């Protein structure tokens, strides 16, 4: 097992999405993927939603459609879908630098940082196709007025938290330390008793009317102790209720006379979906509750999750399967979270390399670096100026990288497109810290076998929708702060994490404005022959939806929950940001579908340098975590250092 299944003891897994994802250029898709829609916001029933803020020199405060925002993917899709190839060899060289990094996500920024540390006098250019740096580590800000009082809230649009820092490599933890991040301080910043003191449970369940016939909320998550009481309230048939209660409360050995070795092999060969259908004989109505149980945590449904991994997640029905439980002691709590998620890591990296970017340095007096970054206001005009050694060029899509030789010196020619124009930069080295699905399209001379390996990383399509509301009394009435929502557009809904730090304060009680987080993983159950195929199908569906469709889905679902609580959502909404990511979780090896020798070799292949072109990003790790993104950046720079020092 590769998944860090010890990181939490509940179903929610926003971490993955996000713990981790650090990206730059958009990944390639199948040829028939439709052009993403991005029309203007419209009313979705009831009171019209607030008008999106779509113009600003400070991207974090933009609302409406964010994530892979309109225009960020156009050039990449030309290359991936229409097979358009760009050649800048005939263009004049606009700049010559030591290093070009493609992708300004955590991995790309860490690559620039590590390179600058090794070569202090180096000139570095970082390119990214978005209007903001950070990749999936996206900062969402909300500034509104409520009853004459100014309200400021921060949230995360992607990469969420520092997950299990005790597992970080020396290099990854060393980087956090150099940035001034002391993870132990989160034990003070994060109020672990906040919701318990309000009498709220950790997680409940929302059954939607369209699927289950009526809108019902359970204020707790079913387990062996409470399943009888909770499922009795669920909008299910008596047969389905009985089946689920038995599954949760009466452990059975469903594998007969299999030996321990046979059991392990067998459970790695079948999905949890197949186990529940073929061995437990769970009826279809009960399966509707179970099918998306792991969707937000793993990025796919239980038809893509091995029964073996389901056991280690603690899912029902496998208690007597004969596998040995992990005995790693108590895991770290899931509390290592900045208000803007891992965007603070990206911002600290930028601040370290370009100190002039901070527009309000006086606010930081008396604060540590990790505290000051929370309310640091960045001046984006300072990201790309001729006099500094590191420049970050946004809205610039890399279209070509090619090894070149000038006399006895080797280097790389880099082409990018910005504002409709092609530009050429020459560099001694290049690090591709972008999503690896784009690498075959920009490095045309890469060996075909390596191109094929890069294209194996099919990322998970997803949406993080953020809704700022005037208060969150509805959640207090419903009795939990997180909800699993089976068979609904958004499989997971929660209110933001209780973190106060650096002069930023979490709401004191349910009467104050709050950001609601809604996660939609667009990977359909029962679609495609494997997880990769399901991701492609889901991405196509996601791109067909316009902003109105996406907004309506979110508001209709949340409105239904509010109705159960006796609250009117339309009276509460202040702002909406929809972070649509066509390519979310990095793919990681799946025991159900990646069984041959080539699957073992692929992660090694995608790390291999191509001349003076080096590979970073969490995709090079085949694991969707921030520390993997950092580790691969460190490895790529070490490769360059070895090249440079070679006699």
Keywords:
FAD/NAD(P)-binding domain; alpha/beta; disordered N terminus; 8-stranded mixed beta sheet; signal
What does this structure look like?
The structure is a single chain. This protein is α/β, with parallel strands linked by helices and 647 residues long. Among the domains are: 91-133 and 340-457 and 590-645, 3-Layer(bba) Sandwich (FAD/NAD(P)-binding domain); 223-313, no CATH class. Helix content is 30%, strand content 17%. The protein is built from 23 helices and 17 strands. The strands form 3 sheets. An 8-stranded mixed beta sheet has the order 1-16-12-15-14-13-6-7. Strands 2, 3, 8, 9, 10, 11 and 17 form a 7-stranded mixed beta sheet that branches. A two-stranded antiparallel sheet has the order 4-5. Strand 9 (396-406) and strand 10 (409-418) form a beta hairpin. Helix 9 (238-249) packs across helix 12 (284-290) and helix 11 (272-280) crosses helix 14. It is globular, with a radius of gyration of 24 Å.
